[in-house]
């Protein structure tokens, strides 16, 4: 609780400190997990029932945009089941053998968390189908006509998969999860709860107005709320502000170029490219990504969900389109409609 951590004095690299802080702010129990009441209720039933039946919990798939709490929930699941937790990710499992090694070393009831599960290789995925259903892997020995498969029994385990792209999961894999929780963006009130808890842990004094201001710029995402809170803390510390009220919070966040809707540099760059380079669209996602100098996936999973949700951007079959609200937010005037349909009849 006190900030007498010696590492703060000798200056750990910021990225490491940020990571450590994010971990420190993670709620450890389901009851400390703010919001997502539907998922929380359903998950709590699944976990409670398996505890009563003394079995490993059913496999759980968590989907939703980044920073909404998938990793946090996976850790909570292991905690609630009082089970060990093994963490890996789709991109780390490229060969079926990698997965076989992990699966065969799991102990009874252990929770295996596979982050970004949609990025696993196809052979590993197929091995996982069988492991999830029958707690078995088939190890192939030898090559060609002489190859034989040796079945290997596994201890019953709980797979928790997380994905930002549930649509990319093949049907057979999705169907093998006993429970799928889709995480939704958080309301400003829920974010204020997250912020209150974090401010307490960071020893910060923030007024209700301060929390409201930070929450309204956090794009419905706890990770962003916590990050903005830490930047406001930096600002308050340097400016000698003991109590962060609404005007202090708003001045601090203006400094970091987080605007009143919570759009950051990338969000605004996407909208500006769309409006100023393509008359508001429609334009393809990959073109848009190149223009703002980001990966297609970053634009699609980081910027777009919030822009769509705020009604600033629309996805159409012909590409991305800026809405009237987008032009308004940027303070720009939409161009007059192209006059294809109004060409005079006698010309042609
Ligand atoms: N419901 C919640 N209540 C309180 N804090 C939360 C909640 N959800 C997320 N957080 C905070 O937000 C941070 C990010 O959450 P987490 O790492 O679980 O997101 P994620 O969905 O796994 O993101 P990614 O897709 O990028 O892996 C955590 O440090 C945690 O403190
Ligand atoms: Mg995560």
From TrEMBL:
Subcellular location: Cytoplasm
Record CDD domains: AAA (cd00009)
Keyword Hydrolase listed: yes
Binding site for Mg(2+): 71
EC number: 3.6.4.-
Superkingdom per UniProt: Bacteria
UniProt region (Head domain (RuvB-H)), positions on chain: 260-348
Pfam annotation, one family: AAA_lid_4
AAA+ ATPase domain location: 56-189
GO BP terms, alphabetized: DNA recombination; DNA repair
Keyword Disulfide bond: no
Domain comment in the entry: Has 3 domains, the large (RuvB-L) and small ATPase (RuvB-S) domains and the C-terminal head (RuvB-H) domain. The head domain binds DNA, while the ATPase domains jointly bind ATP, ADP or are empty depending on the state of the subunit in the translocation cycle. During a single DNA translocation step the structure of each domain remains the same, but their relative positions change.
Function per UniProt: The RuvA-RuvB-RuvC complex processes Holliday junction (HJ) DNA during genetic recombination and DNA repair, while the RuvA-RuvB complex plays an important role in the rescue of blocked DNA replication forks via replication fork reversal (RFR). RuvA specifically binds to HJ cruciform DNA, conferring on it an open structure. The RuvB hexamer acts as an ATP-dependent pump, pulling dsDNA into and through the RuvAB complex. RuvB forms 2 homohexamers on either side of HJ DNA bound by 1 or 2 RuvA tetramers; 4 subunits per hexamer contact DNA at a time.
HAMAP family noted in UniProt: DNA_HJ_migration_RuvB
Protein name: Holliday junction branch migration complex subunit RuvB
Species of provenance: Nesterenkonia natronophila
């Amino acid at each position: 609780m006190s900030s007498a951590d010696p590492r703060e004095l000798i200056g750990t690299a910021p990225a490491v400190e940020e990571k450590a802080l994010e971990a420190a702010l993670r709620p450890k129990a389901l009851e400390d997990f703010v919001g997502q009441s539907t998922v929380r209720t359903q998950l709590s039933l699944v976990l409670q029932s398996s505890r009563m039946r003394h079995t490993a919990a059913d496999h759980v798939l968590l989907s939703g945009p980044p920073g909404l709490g998938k990793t946090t929930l996976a850790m909570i699941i292991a905690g609630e089941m009082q089970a060990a937790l093994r963490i890996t990710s789709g991109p780390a499992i490229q060969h079926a053998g990698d997965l076989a090694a992990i699966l065969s070393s799991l102990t009874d009831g252990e929770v295996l968390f596979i982050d970004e599960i949609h990025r696993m290789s196809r052979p590993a995925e197929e091995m996982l189908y069988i492991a999830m259903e029958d707690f078995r892997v088939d190890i192939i020995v030898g090559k060609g006509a002489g190859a034989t498969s040796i079945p290997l029994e596994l201890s019953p385990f709980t797979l928790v998969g997380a994905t930002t792209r549930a649509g990319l999961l093949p049907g057979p894999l999705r169907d093998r999860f006993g429970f799928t929780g889709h995480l939704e963006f958080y309301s400003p009130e829920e974010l204020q709860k997250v912020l209150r808890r974090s401010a307490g842990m960071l020893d910060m004094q923030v007024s209700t107005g301060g929390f409201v201001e930070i929450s309204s710029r956090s794009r419905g995402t706890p990770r962003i709320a916590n990050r903005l809170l830490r930047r406001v803390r930096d600002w308050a510390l340097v400016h000698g502000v003991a109590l962060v009220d609404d005007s202090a919070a708003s001045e601090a966040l203006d400094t970091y170029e987080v605007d009143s809707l919570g759009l950051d540099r990338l969000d605004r760059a996407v909208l500006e490219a769309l409006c100023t380079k393509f008359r508001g669209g429609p334009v393809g996602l990959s073109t848009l990504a190149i223009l703002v100098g980001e990966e297609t996936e970053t634009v699609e999973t980081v910027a777009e969900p919030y822009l769509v949700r705020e009604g600033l951007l629309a996805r159409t079959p012909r590409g991305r389109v800026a809405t009237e609200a987008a032009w308004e937010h940027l303070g720009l005037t939409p161009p007059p409609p192209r006059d294809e349909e109004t060409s005079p009849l006698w010309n042609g």
